[in-house]
Design goal:
The protein is an alpha/beta fold and 460 residues long. Helices cover 34% and strands 20% of the residues. It is built from 16 helices and 19 strands.
Length: 460
């Protein structure tokens, strides 16, 4: 669990100092502090640290540089860069800053404590932070631990995170929050009319399934749909090895909505929550689905398969159609869906699609407030003919390679016809290089922004 320290007399103060005002600030400090800053050439450059010793040799104060205005605007979680470099002990931010800034730094500190150690022990950071006065420490801990759940699920390889393991994780979360869960597995997917979920997952030794979680009995209804492709070989259109290496993360959408649900239920938001996760492995054997197959979806739309590696939209389509049969107030779909999205915005931004301008505005405002960047992409209707092959209602992989993320989003929108507010996130779910509070590996994207926006979006 990621938690704050309790305040005590032994807490060591941390001063967060902007480079522009460093000289003036130092002139107000003791001669000892000025001498140590001079001897270490401390000038408050970004992530620069100066530890001031006490009379007993322990650290009596820590100076952390925030850098110049230009470097601050290019960085998130500045304090998290310093946290792993501090000796064991409890620390508290002693300098004056806005509550929004302090909240970002406190959350970043918590997230910097995350470590995936399921398969190999790793030294834990021993420096702990006291939550700054005026902040809701319990809420920040809920957010951090929801993010940690997402990271753990993505980081776990498919050998231990197949469809049945993802079901167990969903059951554990449901039990933790007293939520209800039902699971439709294997041949039952056909009898209960989830044909595309069954088709994509039927070649795997670990049977395909649909996880359906519900929580809360009052307030507006929110449905979260997450892509749970626990490993994606590409099917008969098999991926090259270089493209298959990270496919344990292809259930990143499921991991994201489970982490978001953990936040929502932990914070006891006044809403009715439903999670739908089609959990499959896109494997290869004699029963694998083929290019040029035509599938009939739950909604009745037919889909021509032009690439078995465009399977995520197929399993999501059946889940979205189910949710749309009893339209919620808001439906959000999250998926590691297309490489095109990565080409468009890189690994750091979470692109999303919606026709709801008010939702987009609220989400953008929330994303900026909580340092969880998102970027709105267009449901560009003139591209609709690109997903219409003629021989069937829809094409799962339009030829040409143009606008791949947009055409995938348009495909999914065809299965949401009655829900008034719908958004689709085409996330990456992976941190390719270490950054403050974000080690290499699985990462949540867009979930903190959604969590922040929900009270306004749903009038909670």
């Amino acid at each position: 669990m990621l938690t704050f320290a309790q305040s005590s007399d032994a807490t060591c103060p941390i001063y967060l100092i902007e480079q522009e005002g460093c000289s003036d600030w130092l002139q107000t400090q003791s001669q000892t502090t000025q001498d140590w800053a001079a001897s270490t050439e401390f000038s408050a450059k970004k992530a620069q640290i100066c530890m001031i010793p006490g009379s007993d040799g322990s650290v009596s104060a820590v100076l952390v540089g925030l850098g110049s205005e230009a470097t601050r605007n290019r960085s998130r979680f500045l304090l998290a860069q310093a946290a792993p470099r501090l000796p064991a002990g409890d620390y508290a931010i002693a300098s004056d800053h806005s509550s929004a800034f302090l909240e970002e730094q406190a959350l970043g500190w918590l997230l910097s404590q995350y470590c995936f150690d399921r398969y190999a022990s790793r030294p834990a950071h021993k420096a702990r932070l006291v939550c700054p006065d005026g902040l809701d420490s319990a809420r920040l801990e809920i957010i951090a631990n929801g993010e940690a759940l997402t990271r753990d699920l993505i980081n776990t390889p498919a050998s231990d995170m197949g469809p049945s393991d993802l079901e167990k994780a969903a059951r554990d979360l449901s039990a933790q929050h007293d939520a209800k869960i039902s699971v439709t597995t294997g041949p039952d997917l056909l009898t209960q009319n989830f044909p595309m979920i069954h088709t994509v997952g039927r070649a795997s030794a670990d049977a395909p399934r649909l996880l359906d979680i519900s929580w809360g009995d009052t307030g507006p209804q929110l449905v979260l749909v997450g892509k749970g492709v626990c490993f994606d070989t590409g099917g008969l259109n098999i991926k090259p090895g270089s493209s298959m290496g990270l496919m344990k993360k292809d259930m990143g959408g499921a991991a994201a909505v489970l982490g978001l649900a953990d936040m929502i239920m932990g914070a006891k938001l006044k809403l009715r929550l439903r999670l739908l996760i089609p959990a499959v492995e896109n494997a290869i054997d004699g029963s694998a689905f083929r290019p040029q197959d035509i599938l009939t979806s739950r909604k009745g739309l037919t889909v021509e398969i032009n690439n078995t590696d465009a399977e995520g939209r197929l399993v999501l389509a059946d889940a979205l159609a189910l949710a749309d049969e009893t339209p919620p107030d808001l439906m959000i779909c999250m998926a590691t869906l297309t490489g095109a999205a990565r080409v468009a915005v890189g690994p750091d931004l979470a692109p999303f699609y919606t026709d709801d301008d008010a939702f987009a505005q609220s989400l953008g405002d929330a994303a900026a407030a909580v340092a969880d960047p998102v970027w709105r992409m267009p449901f560009h209707t003139p591209y609709e003919p690109m997903i219409e092959p003629g021989i069937a209602d829809l094409d799962n992989a339009p030829k040409g390679g143009f606008a791949g993320s947009i055409t995938a989003a348009l495909f999914l929108r065809r299965f949401v016809t009655d829900t008034p507010r719908f958004a689709h996130f085409d996330i990456y779910g992976w941190q390719p290089s270490a950054a403050p509070a974000r080690p290499v590996g699985g990462v949540g994207q867009g979930t903190r922004a959604i969590f922040e926006a929900l009270p306004k979006v749903l009038n909670l």
